[in-house]
Write a structure and sequence with these properties.
The protein has 262 residues and is mainly β. Helices cover 8% and strands 58% of the residues. A hairpin with a 7-residue loop joins strand 1 (52-59) and strand 2 (67-77). The protein is globular, with a radius of gyration of 18 Å.
Length: 262
């Protein structure tokens, strides 16, 4: 939905905190569910019981001008969550920086909601930067221990670029249903619509044959792909590649860490 920036001034304090934290047990498919399978639904991360740090990089269509960087840190305390994300899409001469900051809350381990403010900075060489602001809202509902339903709305208030400009920031609606028949398998069906833009509907599968390996696959009306995640002592290393039918492939890699309480 938006792009993400890897900023050293934010990364270093997080890394220091990471390494002084005692490493814990392997990452199971359940926390992966709320951070990876439901990555586009911020309210889902409120279902976690512990803080989560993640950094990722994607190169769309192997083109240097279309690089995606993301740094995310979600601080979870009891049923409350502080959700922070910085993203950047593009490169030095052209791109969009997005800063997401919001609050989420979990209610009875069944329902969680999140509301985030979104600051957008569009920059292009030889042009003045454009500053914009909007919000996104999401809900995650665990119908049963095996079934989960999530909804997200981006820019529902129809804010415009430059705040007072004439061009409306694209709105986006997302819906996803998840079914976890066992501890090793997670199935997802999702749909998203961007206004203006295309409609995408598809399915995802996550399978954990071993505690050190999680495999994933995706197939939709716009793309298909495969991925692998390697859990190790609270870390989650990931790599995936998606093929967009009309254009080309987009490789992605990332590393996350789940801070486990004593």
């Amino acid at each position: 939905m938006n792009a993400k920036l890897y900023h050293g001034g934010i990364v270093m304090p997080c890394l220091i905190l990471l390494f002084i934290t005692r490493l814990q047990a392997q990452v199971a498919i359940q926390p992966l569910h709320f951070t990876r399978a439901l990555h586009d639904f911020p309210a889902a991360r409120c279902m976690l019981s512990d803080p989560f740090l993640n950094a990722s990089f994607r190169n769309d269509f192997c083109t240097k001008e279309m690089m995606f960087k993301e740094l995310e840190f979600d601080f979870i305390h009891h049923q409350d969550a502080l959700l922070t994300t910085i993203t950047h899409y593009g490169y030095g001469s052209f791109g969009e920086l997005a800063v997401h900051l919001g609050y989420g809350r979990r209610f009875g381990n069944k329902v969680s909601v999140a509301l985030r403010s979104v600051y957008l900075l569009n920059h292009a060489k030889h042009y003045a930067p454009r500053h914009s602001f909007t919000v996104d809202f999401s809900i995650c509902y665990k119908i049963t221990d095996k079934i989960c339903l999530s909804v997200v709305l981006f820019n529902p208030i129809r804010m415009k670029y430059g705040i007072t400009g004439e061009e409306v920031i694209p709105m986006k609606f997302g819906l996803q249903g998840d079914f976890q028949p066992s501890e090793k398998i997670l199935l997802s069906l999702y749909g998203s619509k961007t206004l203006p833009g295309e409609f995408d509907i598809g399915a995802r599968l996550h399978f954990q044959p071993d505690k050190h390996l999680i495999l994933s696959g995706i197939a939709s009306t716009t793309n298909c792909g495969i991925g692998v995640c390697i859990p190790w002592k609270g870390f989650l290393f990931s790599a995936q590649c998606q093929w967009y039918y009309r254009i080309s492939v987009s490789p992605q890699c990332g590393v996350g860490y789940y801070f486990k309480k004593e």
